[in-house]
Amino acid sequence: MDQPSHFKLKNNYPAGGVREIPISGYDDFYSFVTDGLKDEARHCLAYYGIKTQDSLKLYCFLADDPSGNIEVAAYETGTLNPVLRSAADLFPQLSVFEREINENFGVVFEGHPWMKGVRFPHNRRDKSKTMENYPFYGIESEELHEVGVGPVHAGVIEPGHFRFICNGEKVLHLEIQLGYQHRGTEDLFLSKNTPLQRCILAESIAGDTAVGHSLAHTQLIESLTGLEPGEALQIERCVALEMERIAVHIGDTAALCGDVAYQLGQVVCEAIRTRVINTTQLWCGNRFGKGLIRSGGSNFPLSEETAAEIIKMTDFVDRQFSGITECIYSSPSVLARFEDIGTVTGTQARQIGAVGIAARTCGMARDVRKTHPFQYFRNFAVNPAILETGDVLARGMIRKLEVRESLRIIRELLEVWAGKDKDTGKPDYSYKLKPGAFSVSVVEGWRGEIVHSCETDAKGNLVHYKVKDPSVHNWMALALAVRSQEISDFPVCNKSFNLSYCGHDL
Amino acid sequence: MIRELAILARHGHQSVKDLRTQPVSPLFRGRPVIAEGITTRDIREAAAVCPVSAINNDSGAIDLGRCLFCGECSFLKPGAIKFTNDYRIAVNDRGGLIVKPGADARIRLDETKVRKEIRELFRGSLKLRQVSAGGDNSCEMELGASGNVNFDMGRFGIEFVASPRHADGIVITGPFTANMAEALRLTYDAVPFPKIIVLAGTDAISGGIFNGSPALDRSFLNNHPVDLYVPGNPAHPLTFINGLMDLLGIR
Q1: How many folded domains does chain A comprise?
Q2: Cβ A208 vs Cβ A252: under 8 Å
Q3: pLDDT, tens digit (0-9, with 9 covering 90-100), for A171-211
Q4: From the CA of B28, how many Å to the nearest CA of chain A?
């Protein structure tokens, strides 16, 4: 090959120029993707289209874990109605991305096994496809029946529709229809274009991941402006991210206990979570960390007193959570409901490109904090917990292990922080973005990898903003997990993943 | 068993004793106070920084139905705008969410506008169905927390139920996505009369940062009267529960 088929960059490093991404023919683009993914150390971070006047540009980002590189290739269709060969039949992890490109722009992917809408966005190409006429998979049979659940669920959670095909109590197939939460978020990054509005949009992508998403956004902006966070601020951001992880993992443990009627576990974990999020509120005035992460600086630089409260909180969590998880994971009545339930195999997880805890409970060492480090994680070693069994028990247990690791991270980072210069300034709301540039920012949120990427025009205006929540990959893991399970095990399977609806629907 | 008892002993008594006066951490942003003598220039500059146009460019009043409580106006004009800890900011009248310069009294529900049957029928028992119409899950989690071991709104007979058929009203979160419009209508229709509507969170009250997005459909509000507006980003459990207590006439 004469010229390289792709461009390499690092997570959250100074942005590349758009022209540095070589534009390949589709054959080269296709082989970049398919040859790349043959190596299991790579997976697809993001794959999306940008519409120009009379053409589409497709970008595919692959993460190469051993080298820490992100590889990006581009293809320009030259027409608004292209017919392309699908790569999803070989690599199911690409399926959702090809579906999205089809839904947004009408690109036909020949050979795609499951071409359906993803989220029914307001600006989709084909308005005749609606939420109401979603083409559910069906099986004609006298013995089988279908069960529809949602969009409005029994609990206080977000909407999504679950369609089960069952044989008696046994689930043969689950199809998940999403899109109910679609708010047009990506477009709003272009139309609500003050820096503060963008920060607030980012923390509203998924309110349970306010820190994760706003950090991904902030990194992206900083890489496009040359704003360089000081080391103290980087550490504070990492601490906030780990506090978010701890809070949600403990809350999820409470919910898992609630689903199997283990009340002690539920109420004790609820109280521990309250302490964690109230500490976040002490720091920044908001229990979810909204307002804490801003580009270029912070409105709430950490004080010695708050740091001391965070340490006290970690001691409290350490004592209480390790005590209650010992009870939870040694209780026969709990274990009977978790063990060998909702199993996702390692092969399935690799095929669908699972990320975050869904991957790490299937033996995959996929953690952006380690493989594509960001902020102070570039100087600080994280030891991700890896489990093998891929069942509800593993997804519960990994929360216990990750809480323990996050407590260690917070304590050790705060020790390092104490010796750093505290030179954090106010947020920068007057930045100018580098013209003709693109960048990609990846953060390991508590669910898994969050990817934000964007492109600017010759004047430095945003022309495209793309968000990928880890749920985009992991919803398929839930659908696979419930196969051959009792339908009554669905709630506990669902809680064990706790995926985002709004993060998916955008 | 001994291990479990030890955990329970350490767990202790967790529920907030007085939901009316429970202190929150100093940085929590509740009801704002705008200085009576705020200058026109300060108003303009604060309004310019507001991400959701919650500050009236002329009067300087802040609309809590739009405010995201990001606090940026108070960081910019610390002498003129302050956010207090007061979380009792839910009202039944949309106009009651406008805080004018100089006002520093507690925001109160308009007693004359509370429907008689609400207090007669629901004061001892109020069952609610929650509908998220584009909510970002933070409001949903705070509503869930309202019933948890700490806030325990169940002490007043208030709880979330699984079916709209069992409910006395709906609590809507999120900016009202178009893709949820039909499901929202169906859920509301399935609740038997008499029923109430509560909007929880700024996104629900005004669309919040999503206001103006073409992916929204807020037409539900054109012909459905709202009984309680609970501001916040997200609405704090104490704001939500205090609002319901005021609506139901619980002291």
Answers
A1: 2
A2: no
A3: 999 999 999 999 999 999 999 889 999 999 999 999 999 99
A4: 4
